[in-house]
Amino acid sequence: MAQPGEPYPVKVFVAALFVPDAVMQDALSRLAERLGPIDYTSDAIPFDVTDYYASEMGKGLMRQLFSFARKVTPAAIAEIKLFTNALEDELAEGGKRRINLDPGYMDHNKVVLPSMKQGSQKIYLDKGVWADPTLRYEKGRFHPFDWTFPDFKDGRYHKPLMRIRELYKTGR
In this structure, is residue 1 part of a structural domain? Predict the structure, then answer.
């Protein structure tokens, strides 16, 4: 009879959505305090798939990915999501967010984003946080699911995610 085992540690990243020069440095400093040293920073990539955030955050939004050297257990992503939500609120101005911090984790086979919303594909973790499988890795590349967010689906983050995966695989 097989015995349950411990999960492999995972690599944490944050996909930050922001207006350039907003509060990025404050956010990164706080993220590093909580999650450890940043070991990868992608280029800023235009976020132009929706105007959903424009009324709150403005126009000209960019998305940038950051990964962290310290690996964690997959279950830690629930607390990390609660932390990033609180940090967004702390950095808000006049009740409007100036940065949106979407944490996630990667292992050898997938990218998972935590969510505060239920969904048919999502798996409950803890404290109102759900795990949303977002991409699967197969045959040298990431593949989206039907429900994957458009900006993660269209391949614009493929290179940064591949670099984060290389760091994960090499133990860094």
Answer: no
55 by DSSP, 3-state: which?
A: helix
Which residues constitute the domain of residue 120?
A: 10-169
Q: Specify the DSSP element, H or E, that contains 70.
A: strand 62-72
Interval 3-37: pLDDT, tens: 888 899 999 999 999 988 768 999 999 999 999 99
Q: Which of 27, 17, 25 is nearest to 53 (CA)?
A: 17
- Where b means 16+ CB within 10 Å and e means fewer, 58-87 reads eeebbbbbbbbbebbebebbbbbbbbbbeb
Closest CA to 103 of 23, 30, 4: 30
Number of compact structural domains in the chain: 1
3-state SS, residue 109: coil
pLDDT tens, 95-118? 999 999 999 999 999 999 999 999
